[in-house]
Design goal:
38% helix; 273 residues; elongated; alpha/beta; four-stranded mixed beta sheet; single chain; six-stranded parallel beta sheet
C-alpha cells in the first residue's frame, strides 16, 4: 500500500525566519515566489511534508491570493505519491473563500489523522472507563460524521461499554430513526447501545468532537481525552479557562507539533556539528 503524504502549509514564525529575518518567499527567474517544503514526520500510514508560508511574497509586498495559491500548487505538484493538503487558519486568511475551498483536506485525511491521534492518546482512557462521547456537528454532515466515527472506533469498540452521542435537535426529525443503520451495527457487532443526549448534559471518556464551536462545558475530566476533529483552537483555550485538566489534541495541533519538532531537530543538529 502506497504511503500517503500530507502537505501542510503553515505560517512562518519569527524564530524560523532565519538570521537575516527573511520574511518573504524566494524569487527565481522562472517564478515570482518559490516556497520550500521539507519532510517533517514519517508515520507508518503517512508522511507529513511541511511548507512554511512567509507573510510576504517579495520584500514587504503582501501576497496576492492568486499568486499564493499558484506557489502552493507548485509545491503540491512536486510532492510524491498520494498527496492531500492541510492549510493552517492563519494561511487561510491570505486566501479568498473560493481558494480556501480548493485547499480543504479530504475527509479521508482527517480520518487518517484521527486514527493516529486515537492510537497515540487513548490507550489509558479506554482502560480507565471504556466510555466514548461523540459531539455531532452540522446536521447536514451527520451521515459522514457517523461513518467516520465507526471507522475511527472499530479497533477499540471491544473495550467500550458506554457511548454517548450529542446532537443538535431539529423539529420533525427522529435522530434514532435517521441513524438506525449505525445503531444496529454497534448493537449486533459489539453489544453496544449508544445513548442520544441533549446539550448541556455531562460527558467524558474519549471525546470525538465534530462541532465548529465549543458547546459542551460539563466534561468529567477523569480519564478524558478531547479529540477535536475540526481543529478549532479556541476550544482548547476554553478548556483551560474552565480549569479542565484534560489532554486536548486535534489534527491541526498534531501538524503544528511535528513541524516545530522538525525545526528544533534541525537547529540542534546545526549547533552540535
Amino acid at each position: 500500500m502506497e504511503q500517503e503524504t500530507i502537505l501542510y502549509y503553515y505560517p512562518m514564525q519569527e524564530t524560523t525566519a532565519g538570521p537575516d529575518h527573511r520574511y518573504a518567499a524566494k524569487r527565481h527567474w522562472f517564478a515570482d515566489a518559490v516556497l520550500p517544503a521539507r519532510i517533517a514526520a514519517k508515520q507508518e500510514a503517512f508522511c507529513v511534508l511541511g511548507c512554511e508560508i512567509p507573510p510576504f511574497y517579495y520584500r514587504r509586498k503582501p501576497w496576492k491570493t492568486q499568486m499564493l495559491s499558484s506557489a502552493m500548487e507548485t509545491v503540491l505538484s512536486m510532492a510524491e505519491g498520494m498527496t492531500d493538503t492541510y492549510v493552517h487558519p492563519a494561511v487561510q486568511t491570505l486566501l479568498t473563500e473560493e481558494y480556501c475551498e480548493r485547499w480543504m483536506p479530504r475527509a479521508g485525511t482527517i480520518q487518517m489523522l484521527g486514527e493516529h491521534l486515537l492510537a497515540e492518546y487513548t490507550k489509558d482512557a479506554f482502560a480507565h472507563n471504556g466510555m466514548v462521547t461523540v459531539f455531532l456537528g452540522q446536521p447536514a454532515d451527520t451521515d459522514l460524521q457517523m461513518q467516520m466515527t465507526w471507522k475511527l472506533l472499530q479497533p477499540y469498540l471491544s473495550r467500550v461499554n458506554r457511548m454517548q452521542i450529542y446532537y443538535e435537535e431539529i423539529a420533525g426529525v427522529d435522530i434514532e430513526e435517521e441513524l438506525q443503520e449505525y445503531l444496529e451495527s454497534y448493537y449486533y457487532e459489539y453489544g453496544l447501545v449508544p445513548q442520544f443526549c441533549k446539550r448541556r448534559e455531562k460527558c467524558g471518556g474519549v471525546i470525538l468532537d465534530y462541532c465548529k464551536q465549543f458547546q459542551y462545558p460539563k466534561i468529567i475530566p477523569e480519564g478524558c481525552v478531547y479529540i477535536d476533529l475540526t481543529s478549532v483552537a479556541e476550544k482548547e483555550q476554553i478548556c483551560r479557562r474552565k480549569g479542565l485538566p484534560i489532554p486536548y489534541v486535534s489534527p491541526l495541533k498534531y501538524l503544528d507539533t511535528v513541524v516545530k519538532n522538525s525545526y528544533d531537530r534541525k537547529v540542534n543538529k546545526f549547533y552540535h556539528e
